[in-house]
Design brief:
The complex is a heterodimer of chains A (577) and B (216). In chain A, the strands form five sheets. Chain A has a six-stranded antiparallel beta sheet, with helices on both faces. Chain A starts with a helix and ends in a 29-residue tail after the last helix. Helix content of chain A is 23%, strand content 16%. Chain A is an alpha/beta fold and 577 residues long. Chain B is mainly α. The longest helix of chain B has 18 residues, at 102-119. The termini of chain B are close together. The chains are: A alpha/beta (577), B mainly alpha (216).
Chain lengths: 577, 216
Amino acid sequence: MSRAHELRTLLRGAVRPPDNDSAFLLDVHRRAVPRERMARYDDDYPADLVIVGAGAGGGTLAQRLARRGWKVVVLESGPFWDPDEDWVSDEAGSHRLYWTEERIIGGSDPVELGKNNCGHGVGGSMVHYAGYCPRFHPSDFEVRTRDGVGEDWPISYEDLKPHYERLELELPVAGDYWPWGDPHRYPHTAHPIAGGADVARGGARKLGIEMRVGPVGITNGAFGNRPHCIYRGFCLQGCKVNAKASPLVTHIPDAIEHGAEIRSGCMAMDVEIDESSGRVTGVHYMTDGRERFQRADAVAVAGYSIETPRLLLNSISRRFPHGLANDNDQVGRYVMVQGAPQVAGRFPDEMRMYKAPPPEISSEQFYETEERRGFARGFSIQTVGPLPIEHAQHVLGHGHWGHALREYMRDYNHWYTLGILSELLPLADNRVTVVPAVTDRNGIPVARIDYSQCENDRKNIAYAKQTLHNIFEAAGAQDILATDRYAHLVGGCRMGSDPDRSVVDSDHRAWQVPNLFITDGSVMPTQGSANPALTIMALASRLAERLDRGRAGASAARQPRHRQRPPRPAPTRAGAG
Amino acid sequence: MSDPPTQRNGITPQMRGRYPDYNVLDEADRWDEVTRRLVLDRVQNVPPIRFFTAPEALTLGLFCELVVAQHSDPKVPVLNMIDAKLFRGELDGFRYVDMPDDRETWRRVALGLDASARGSGAVDFVSAPFGVQERIVDAFAQGDLRGEVWDELPPARAWKVVTRAILSAFYSHPWAWNEIGFGGPAYPRGYARIGAGQRESWEPRAADSERPEAAT
């Protein structure tokens, strides 16, 4: 073993990220992000950048640019969470974490929203994601060239690689050495795994399928003032421990320290455009029942795959009668979800899948196209660890109700569950539109999302489901239940190299508006079969670097005028929030 | 099928369960304050029916009991819990394009159950013979109801809406956790013993080590 490798192993977990102090800015005795010193800007003060949404994309971008001296205001529709007070160690009690405003779903295979895939509040969906943080594979960026499906990205894996590496240190990500895609190692060692994952891994091995531990954005050992994971199993309900990574604890504290203002409870209504210059001037938003306007030199929209298109489509002007940056009818198109069937197996031993984080082991062995499977692209295999309500829905989805349901549920502790992420292909008619006749509490038209699968999608899901079935059989399961569902959301404002077939260029800048950027999962042209969080953060990190170097267009965002930290305003009473 | 054992400690729905000496509420002082308040409130304060009308509550209450097989006391107050959510307007963040709002779906399901019962010769759902009620629920589960209300309300989708709420209410209740041996809230305590067949000292031991006969 090489000396460098030994040294890395020795230092593993002890390396501090060079440009992000978030974990060290958190309080030792409470979980809430300290906000006493957060900057407060007037609406009239022209921010260098106003960001809509404080999730994976917005939170990361804010931190990066605030560190580089930009005056950044983030408008977040949801609350600024306090994990101690706002979150509970309870499945049904976590309803507030999700986007629960009205949305309409259609198409031949509609996608159920809410708790499955839509976040709300500072930290975004990463507050309630499981915690898987895989990278995309190099093949993801050129699926049109390689596989003749989907679309090539205007950037390559190499463009994101340095940002993946930085973010894996910042979250930090824990896991085994990763042999798939671009092989790499992780800064934190793999977590111990629970009995069910161990049994499933054994079953997979018998079939020649390799499963490895991780990669999860969960601290293994203390990290700054973030403690070790306690394996309580409630990752999807918001991590009360602060062990699981979300922008709330990984980027927002550092953004605040460097002068960014995170304005929660602010629902963006439309982005204003100056008709004469064709540039956006700021964002109208509602807070406490009043409409306000934040002026800014540039606007970055990071509301995710439904709210980002909705905001653009609802930003109507003479220049853009069909919605901002939508001259070519591309806004809202090519929305994607991953096929995420779950298969549960029953074992003689108790598995108690409520213990340990739901994300434990995964395999990317089936990630790329393999001709004999009969479809393009592939899927990944992960663990899911459903709590009782989720498992009951799984059982009921299989047709068992009444006494049979109760009987199956009394057996809950003997079951373990694996899940799939199937790469479904981008289709133009899978899209977000707005419904003028149905409005939210602010009178803004709500979003409608239509979703239909293509033949390739169905084949992929069926094959993947059978693979899980085989793994459980090989593992010695006595009974197996399978159920269909979806996971994740990306696309809707994709990046591209052709202005007629995309919304933003490779620098996330709207083709038709020089100072409007989109910086969330909606820019993804394809989705691979990886969980999107890490890639959304990596995209935002790359954009920040390019914006700051002025490469994203000299006239786009103003060059930073101030290299020092902005003066820190005195704490205000409103600051406690 | 043999009956599961009678509960000796704490309460389970219908006092049957697989972990007769386990009462998750015995652990409440180990939970964090916010979670404890929420979960104890769920047990101690049954919300009154405010959203549904009295006839709706009668029909839907019976329907909920059938779906989770609560045929005797003690019962988890499923409909009251659902009523409270609907009364507060707590929805799930989406509705199918061919479906009304979830609140309206529930009211129409009440009408639909009565209509289907009349189709089977009964006066309404509540007074129909048990066998007829079960057949209607089973047809509902298969998406196989037709006529009147159901021509406007796709039954397969309506079934998903109502069962999502029913399961969320029933399996959020500590009595149901006792029945299935779920560890319940686990903050700040967490777990150290996570391997197959391992349990913490306070985690429940099943009355049997093998699975009861499948109920089919």
